[in-house]
Design goal:
The complex is a heterodimer of chains A (about 325) and B (about 240).
Chain A: H1 2-21, E1 39-45, H2 48-63, E2 67-75, H3 77-85, E3 91-95, H4 96-106, H5 118-130, E4 134-136, E5 146-150, H6 152-158, E6 174-177, H7 188-192, E7 203-206, H8 212-219, E8 228-232, H9 236-241, E9 244-245, E10 258-263, H10 264-269, H11 273-286, H12 289-300, H13 306-317
Parallel strand pairs in A: 1-2, 6-7, 6-8
Antiparallel strand pairs in A: 3-10, 4-10, 5-8, 5-9
Helix pairs in contact in A: 2-13, 4-5
Chain B: H1 2-12, H2 23-55, H3 59-71, H4 74-88, H5 92-121, H6 125-133, H7 138-168, H8 181-190, H9 193-221
Helix pairs in contact in B: 1-9, 2-5, 2-7, 3-5, 4-5, 5-7, 6-7, 7-9, 8-9
Classes of the chains: A alpha/beta (about 325), B mainly alpha (about 240).
């Protein structure tokens, strides 16, 4: 008798659970996505900017009648890309340069395919991921690339304003670089060639890239311990601390516009890439580097919720139907 | 199985024994930070704990403070200290290892204070009275009666603190500090599993060595009269004569 009761309890819980998981928004009269593809599972990388951009795309799609299943702040690309490619996610906003290099590495090809030309990088990325069942839609105007930034006092003292100026002074500076820099061709590799800096000879402290610690270390008093660090170009702390971003005068930094990458299978079921591009391309085009930096500042410095910041920006730009 | 082979290859690779992140240097850093933290911790905690254990005064305050110290997450303390040090110093070594040292001191103090206090309080009051009756003054009682009797418990506290410090000093790597934790942080950042595993194993090994060494030291210094478990068990070969 007891086991039957347990069975009955289990069955009713199962029914309850399945009843709760269905249900979502009804399609708006403006757009009528096909019932199969009414839900979009959107993921993002493990940092706030990625979640912010995913949230922007999510809210636009919601306004067009889609139900969004948010899987934000998952983790690094080694986790998110397979999740997308294997169909556990329907869409990921991605940085085209880094993603291209990531796929190049997966294909076991030599690195260096991403260039500082957005269109070239985008085309190469589209070619590489097409075979993996992924479609890349239009990119944002904004780019967020890794850039070396210096404490203003050190930059002035040594007269450094661009990357080529560094070779002569590299060993005098204390560098704040992430642990993965040593083995990353886009980091240590590019410092060596073309900028002629011997990575092994540098005095460095290993702090996370684009993190608060390296920014705080650079932004501290004029006589601080760290002189130069790896930052993200749209990071709020750059303006906040007046850091000097060194110009990539040899043009080796890959283009890092952000583009929504969709599961091709999902797009086909949802009415095709053109229909989705019609919704999302205007949003991407409206997001410039300055705007993205400002949004980052609202989240990072003013401590506002990124969903609220995303919604405010969309409303201001008139991107919501 | 592949991981095990890669791990052995990692230790065999001469590149890991020279240059930046060389094993001997990181190992030495880790030992120095741990030893330094223990020495400072002992210097702060022991006198305080001996006083409150002997006199019984101020115990509530001291124990409460140490309980708060125990509840403090070391990682949070590290990040806070980093923020302070970044404003205060322009020396890279101080910036990377100072916060770790202080956080480890904070970690070492609670077990030492708690065990020392409890050990002293547990000493039979009759024995203290006897000592007083023999004409011993406070400090003499402490030195000749209370401490020897409480020694097992005190040394256990020191052992607990030491092992915790050695294991947790790995955290310093998260704010760019040195020590064996660097291999774990780098292993995670570079997806280099052999490096990560090597770091973890070295830390675990060091903690084990510290534990066993201090346990040996404890056996050597604690009087057999005080620690009955150290007395040889009587068997048919020798009569059980208690050593005095």
């Amino acid at each position: 008798m007891r086991s039957i009761r347990m069975l009955a309890l289990g069955a009713s819980l199962l029914v309850l659970a399945s009843a709760c998981s269905t249900g979502g928004g009804s399609p708006s009269p403006v757009d009528n996505p096909t019932p199969d593809a009414q839900t979009v599972r959107i993921g993002s990388a493990g940092f706030v900017e990625s979640a912010l951009i995913a949230e922007i795309y999510a809210q636009v799609l919601e306004a067009h009648g889609y139900t969004i299943d948010r899987q934000l702040q998952i983790g690094p690309r080694d986790v998110t890309f397979p999740a997308l490619a294997s169909g556990q996610l329907d869409m990921m906003p991605e940085y085209i340069g880094s993603t291209l290099e990531f796929v190049v590495r997966l294909d076991a090809d030599p690195p260096g395919e991403a260039t500082n030309d957005t269109q070239q990088t985008l085309t190469r990325l589209r070619e590489r991921v097409a075979g993996r069942g992924l479609t890349v839609l239009g990119p944002t105007e904004a780019q967020d690339f890794d850039a070396f930034a210096m404490r203003p006092s050190s930059a002035q003292e040594l007269g450094i304003s661009k990357m080529s100026d560094l070779a002569a002074h590299a060993t005098e500076l204390t560098w704040g670089v992430p642990s993965e820099c040593a083995t990353n061709p886009l980091c240590a590799g590019q410092l060596e060639d073309p900028y002629g800096i011997d990575f092994d000879s540098l005095t460095l402290i290993e702090l996370g890239a684009c993190g608060g610690e390296v920014a705080a270390a650079l932004g501290s008093s004029d006589e601080g311990a760290v002189d130069i660090g790896l930052m993200c170009s749209t990071q709020a702390e750059i303006a906040r601390f007046g850091l000097v971003v060194l110009e990539d005068d040899q043009g080796v930094t890959p283009a890092q516009n952000i583009a929504p990458i969709f599961l091709t299978e999902w797009l086909d079921a949802a009415g095709g890439a053109e229909a989705m591009a019609a919704i999302l391309d205007p949003v991407s085009a409206a997001l410039s580097t300055e705007e993205l930096t400002e949004l980052n500042a609202r989240v990072g410095i003013d401590q506002e919720d990124f969903a609220v910041v995303a919604g405010d920006w969309l409303a201001e730009e008139g991107l919501l139907p | 199985m592949q991981l095990l082979t890669d791990l052995l290859a990692w230790f065999a690779d001469p590149a890991n024994w020279t240059g930046r992140d060389a094993i001997p240097e990181r190992f030495l850093e880790h030992v120095l930070i741990s030893a330094g933290a223990m020495l400072i911790g002992l210097a702060i905690a022991l006198p305080l704990a001996l006083y409150i254990g002997h006199t019984g005064r101020g115990a509530f305050l001291a124990i409460s403070l140490t309980n708060i110290g125990r509840a403090l997450p070391s990682y949070a303390l590290l990040v806070i200290l980093f923020g302070v040090f970044v404003q205060a110093t322009s020396n890279l070594t101080v910036l990377t290892n100072g916060p770790t040292l202080l956080a480890m001191v904070a970690l070492a103090i609670p077990p030492i204070i708690t065990n020392t206090y409890v050990g002293l309080r547990d000493v039979d009051r009759d024995l203290v009275e006897v000592a007083n009756g023999l004409g011993m003054r406070g400090a003499q009682v402490l030195r000749r009666v209370e401490i020897p009797l409480a020694l097992p418990v005190i040394l256990t506290g020191v052992r607990i603190a030491a092992v915790q410090v050695v294991a947790t000093a790995a955290l310093g790597a998260v704010i760019g500090g040195g020590g064996l934790g660097r291999y774990i942080v780098q292993g995670m950042a570079r997806f280099d599993m052999p490096r990560l595993l090597a770091g973890a194993l070295m830390i675990a090994g060091l903690a084990l060595v510290v534990e066993l060494s201090l346990a040996w030291l404890q056996r050597r210094t604690v009087s057999p009269a005080v620690a009955p478990e150290q007395r040889p068990v009587a068997d048919w070969r020798s009569p059980a004569a208690p050593r005095v």
